[in-house]
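User: Show me a protein chain along with its predicted structure.
Assistant: Here is one chain, sequence first, then structure tokens.
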Amino acid sequence: MLLKNFSNKALECGTDEAGRGCLAGPVTAAAVILPENFSNGFLNDSKQLSEKKRYTLKPIIEIGALTFGVAHVFQDEIDNINILNASILAMHKSIEQLKPIPEFIIVDGNKFKPFNNVAFKTIVKGDSKYLSIAAASVLAKTYRDLYMNKIHEEFPMYNWKQNKGYPTKEHREAIKKYGITKYHRKSFRLLPEQLKLDI
């Protein structure tokens, strides 16, 4: 059973990101403030849910939330500031969209930077402990997946519709065969063999 609140503040927001470990596409974050009376038996960490369940929950969260925000930080910026900073930036950008602004922020994971002097707490595996973080994880994942499906049309040979930019064997094979696109993160090790020589 997921917990409602970490703090005793009514306007507590949960935030989480998706796409940190991908080789292509943005890192996407969401922030959600749920009302006191929100409950949903299915809602859980998005990684524990089927794709179908995530898409079913997306409108339920959007309609049920007091307020929510979603933000992408794209590959050029990831290459520029690194993936950790990009993840935190995406969270900040999603929190900026919230109206009313949160009185407390709970963050999935163990790294965050202060946002406008709002008190916060990082919680490892927070998406499987707190409702608002689980809701944020579902929105971050579904919005990012929809974006990857869209750019899949432009470069179908990488099969992003299926792998969403994660380093699957098939994705790496396509990089080996076709090279990289404008959507790939150049600062990532795109091929494990980059350091090996064929002798």
